[in-house]
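Notes to self after the Tuesday call (sharing in case useful).
The group wants a holo model before anyone commits to mutagenesis around the pocket. I volunteered. Ligand is adenosine-5'-diphosphate. Logging inputs and output together so the record is complete.
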Amino acid sequence: MVIEIKKVSFGYSTEKVLHDVDCVFEGGGFYAVIGPNGSGKSTMIRLLNRLLIPDTGTVQVNGRSVQDYPRRFLAQHIGYVPQSGGSSANATVFDTILLGRKPHIKWAPGKSDFKKTVNIIRDFSLEHLTLRLTGELSGGELQRVHIARALVQEPDVLILDEPTSSLDLSHQIEVMKMLKEVSTKGITVIVAIHDLNLALRYADQFLLLRDGSIIAMGDERVISEQNLRALYDVEVQKVDVDGQSYILPLLG
Ligand code: ADP
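Result:
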């Protein structure tokens, strides 16, 4: 599934937050959207799954405007994990994840919906939490539940807004590895992320957003010292350790 943003501008009020944004997310790519706070990452992500509608330009899925698709189609094919998950605090972890199957369920969940839920709970090592209410989880546990819920939906495109922000280091790596694995199966993964080193290690395409405009897009070469200086106004060094690039901020 290909998602294309074509000449999109958007503002919450008269002031524009995105300016003439053009980009293509190809099927099976793992895209990291990078930029300072307030640069428009979340806004761009919300435009991708029609939570927001562009003022000008279009967002297209497989060559057709997202606005032309029935809601159910988008729900079946595009998974979305917002920054603050949006699940009921009074539901159990099991029910919350099972709800990810909702776009595929006619009137009641079937055997395969339960099986997929159980499998994803195992993949995320959440077995010990299945009967806990989501309102009783830590921020990191809740974040993993929300990612599991999006994955059980089996979307073609998975969009996540800062999926690792509340996670400890080992769970950050676990989640990014899982997203990488998912992308190798042909699912397009799009993440807004602040951690440049996690992005460099796991994503394969990078989109740099500054003040609502894309200043660079491409493979890991766009994560250059020069582009990062332009993006954050911070000096960094890109170093190589055992063939893997890392970004080292120079704290001066
Ligand atoms: P990022 O995700 O890169 O931090 P956002 O897309 O959240 O950036 O925000 C881009 C700009 O839009 C910011 O100036 C922010 O204050 C503004 N903004 C975000 N959400 C809203 C909203 N719901 N109403 C009004 N302004 C908003």
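Two things stood out.
The first helix runs from residue 41 to 48.
The chain has a mean pLDDT of 93.
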